[in-house]
Design brief:
The chain contains two helices and no strands. By secondary structure, the protein is an all-alpha fold. It starts with a helix and ends with a helix.
Length: 80
C-alpha cells in the first residue's frame, strides 16, 4: 500500500529530509534505520470544518458532514 507517509518514508530513507507523522502511523511500517521520536512537550491541535454556504453536498457527503458535526458536539459535551 502506498500513501503520503510511505512516499515520505522512502524520501527519508534516501536522506532527502525528515517526516512528521501521527504516533502509530509509523510503527507498523517496518522501516529499517528509521525511528519514531515523539515531540516533547506534546503538541495538540483542534479541527475545523469548512464548507461553502448555501451549497448542497452529495447525499453521502452530507451524511458524513452530519456525522462529524454530531461527534464534535459529543466531544464538546464531554469537555464541559
Amino acid at each position: 500500500m502506498h500513501n503520503l507517509l510511505s512516499n515520505a518514508t522512502a524520501m527519508v530513507q534516501n536522506g532527502l529530509g525528515s517526516s512528521l507523522c501521527i504516533e502509530g502511523s509509523f510503527t507498523n511500517r517496518g522501516c529499517p534505520g528509521l525511528r519514531f521520536v515523539p515531540i516533547e512537550p506534546e503538541m495538540t491541535s483542534g479541527h475545523v470544518l469548512i464548507r461553502k454556504r448555501n451549497k448542497s453536498l452529495p447525499k453521502i457527503a452530507e451524511h458524513f458532514w452530519e456525522f462529524l458535526e454530531e461527534e464534535i458536539r459529543k466531544d464538546h459535551e464531554v469537555e464541559a
